[in-house]
Amino acid sequence: MDLDKYQTIIFDCDGVILNSNFQKIEAYRKAAISYGANDQQAQALVDHHIALTGISRHIKFNYFLTDIMHESVTEPAMNHLLKALNEQVLSLLEKCEIAQGLFELRQKTKKVKWMVASGGDEKELNHLFKEKKIDQFFDEGIYGSPASKHEIIENQQKKLNFLPALFLGDSLYDIQTAQKYNLDFIFVSGWTDLADWKKICNDAGIKTIKKISDLT
Q1: Which residues contact residue 167 at a Cβ distance below 8 angstroms, ignoring those fewer than 6 apart?
Q2: Backbone phi, then psi, for 167, in 5-degree steps?
Q3: Any idea where the domains of the chain sit in the sequence?
Q4: What confidence tens digit (pLDDT) does each residue in 94-152 have?
Q5: Long-range contact list for 40-49, CB < 8 A, 24+ apart?
Q6: What percent of the chain lies above the pLDDT cut of 90?
């Protein structure tokens, strides 16, 4: 691919930059149990999280409280869940595998702006990327929830020289986001938790790679 034709490359985080999808699944399970959920209720949250991969945790915890626990959404309840998830994520992702080829791809695309648009917590992402010494690659910023990916992209589109842009993602929501905002898209399959990704990509004619290093 001619990557130099792009002004911006947008990266999802979980499953693209970090091998973290299945660690995030475990983090949601532990957060639910810490709140008082039984195994069945915790699994229901996990299933909802997987179905909405790439969506903000605030939306998922709203669903957990109202539809799984049959409770009102209160500030103490939400704060407990967000704090518990944050602690689990930071613990589980501390030694998480980083995609090979990031440095080589950055060297190959020196004139292209890089940014992250993730469903993960923005402060958490910036902390993790700094700890892993990869934050400097993303000169256009590292963005996440509580803003949605749609909001992140809309904010970036207001800037000059944002398009054309390439989005690298691994979820159905990433595909939908790229289509909505007319972004070129490549599906990164190696660490995805989207079970039927092959059929979805084949049916839609979406380009796929297994890992970031395939672009180098």
Answers
A1: 9, 10, 12, 117, 174, 177, 178, 183, 184, 185, 186
A2: -110, 125
A3: 3-19+97-215, 22-92
A4: 889 999 999 999 999 999 999 999 999 999 999 999 999 999 999 999 999 999 999 99
A5: 41/68, 41/69, 44/68, 49/24, 49/25
A6: 90
HEC assignment per residue over the chain? CCHHHCCEEEECCECCCECCHHHHHHHHHHHHHHHCCCHHHHHHHHHHHHHCCCCCHHHHHHHHHHHHCCCCCCHHHHHHHHHHHHHHHHHHCCCCCECCCHHHHHHHCCCCEEEEEEEEEHHHHHHHHHHCCCHHHCCCCEEEECCCHHHHHHHHHCCCCCCCEEEEECCHHHHHHHHHCCCEEEEECCCCCCCCHHHHHHHHCCEEECCHHHHC
Average pLDDT, the chain: 95
pLDDT digits (tens, 9 = 90+) for 73-97: 999 999 999 999 999 998 988 889 9
CA-to-CA distance for 181 and 90, rounded, in angstroms? 31
Which tens digit of pLDDT belongs to each residue from 151-165?
Answer: 999 999 998 899 999
Q: Which CATH number fits domain 3-19+97-215: 3.90.76.10, 1.10.3210.10, 3.30.1360.120, 3.40.50.1000?
A: 3.40.50.1000
